[in-house]
Amino acid sequence: MIMRKLKYFALALLLGMGFSSCENMLDDNKNPDKASSVTAEQLLPVVVFYSSQINYDHAEYGAYLSQALTTGGKSQTGSYAYKSGWEFLTMNRHPQWRRHFFDIGTNVNELIKAAEKINSKNFILIARTIRLMSTQLTTDMFGDMPRSEAYKSNSPKYDTQESIYEWMIKESDELIALYNDPAWTDAPTNVKITKQMDRIFSGDLKKWKQFTYALKARILLRKLPNWDNTPATCQQIIDAVDAANTAEWEEPRYNYDSGTGVKSSPWGLSKPIINGWESRDNQLDKAIASKYFCVNILGVFDKPSPSIGQAEDPRLEKMMTKRAGPEGDAAIKYRYLENNIGMGVSYKESNYPDLYAGVYTKDNGYIPLITTEELLLIKAEAEYWKGDKVAARTLAIEAANMNMDRYGVINAKYKSNYFDLKYKDKYFPEGDAFTIKHLMLQKYVCMYLQPEQWTDLRRYNYSNDVNKKTYDGVIVYPGLKRPYNLYEPYWCTEKNPDGTVKEVWIQRINYDPETEEKYNKAELERLGAYKSSDWLKKPMIWAIYSDAHK
């Protein structure tokens, strides 16, 4: 799987593309196959850069799999299965897999070795923290995967997802202990880390520690609502969030300068493709906001209201810009489509809203490794399941307000309609009327273009009016429907007794065909994952539906 001869492939490519914080390193890196020529100072900016890129990779898939976005076509198959009929087995590359094992994993290993040579422990702490984040993202997309034996052979054993979660919790605790140990953080041999090396926190270990607490909270959140939903687990999550969200908390953002290649945000209009063949550009110019996102979530109006605006949720106008339609439907408005239903023959993608209007979708934008809103909503969910709906509601309102500030929503009248007046009872009812539905629908908006959006839907089993999977007695995502035109041999063959199609949803992505099917076929066969569409339907350990919280 992980071929040693490709050890510095990602590093060499990134440096060769003129990465701004690495330009002064090119002369020292003529032979990328010699580990002795690569220093910790050279490796850290590469690892930090890829921490941003892997978040994009996961969010780019997730925006379609969570059904916030769709396309104008209605094909059952295509080069991007997450944009069409979920026919994933013929896709030849999933960037998330390579990003974790090659671009992050291999370079983290070499960074740690280089840092150990000079006894600079601060590099090691940051490297391990990014590896922890990358592991969490990767196992949440693929499930079982190599960890304990990764890099030992081309065909390593796959660890179970449960054991990976055990390792991640242990690793987060170990890292937090080391961040609290002056022998590590204040070691006299620590090399000063500059902004050029670390574009997120400039080597500030206190801020990296807070991010590690946030990662721990996100990892523990996976135990809710199905896996280990107990008051003790909820309190552990609350404690981790409180430890993260102190006065020292700063949102971990990778800021882009704008320019060619890696200087522009992958969500921006320039649409950079990192390392070429292994990546996916954003294609937001061809994407269309879904009816579910626009109508069910954001509450777009057929006709704008002079007293409220274009939608119940004022963020709609900051996330996308309305456009004119074709002849016969020329009005400038917010159009949308059912997922994978296809456009009418007279329509083009340019008749639908411009999706480059949002806060993340600028060439000089940023990618957060975790948002402050997510942190608040993690705590809100734990408070909810612990039984404190008042605290959960208060945190959800705080997160929504913060998210509106992020998008630049400044119209106090529109905001008051959302929070306090006309739509208060719909989005933030008081007392027992506030349910897990209200909380998770708010998180859906806040997690737009973030990896957690799809993970949340899977954790709550796509709870909708058809599958009728309830949590605390309610449907969590009312109005959510499976996309039209799913690939029939995989997704439309299982029938209910009345002849209707079973509501089977996608739960994971198949392992990267370019590496795993070639070099680790035996492990895939052992798991039952080799070229198996049934594997895509197998829930993660944290998504196995439990009757305990129906």
From TrEMBL:
UniProt KW keywords: Signal
Signal peptide boundaries: 1-25
One Pfam assignment: SusD-like_2
InterPro entries, alphabetized: SusD-like_2, TPR-like_helical_dom_sf
Matching PROSITE patterns: PROKAR_LIPOPROTEIN
Name of the protein this chain belongs to: SusD/RagB family nutrient-binding outer membrane lipoprotein
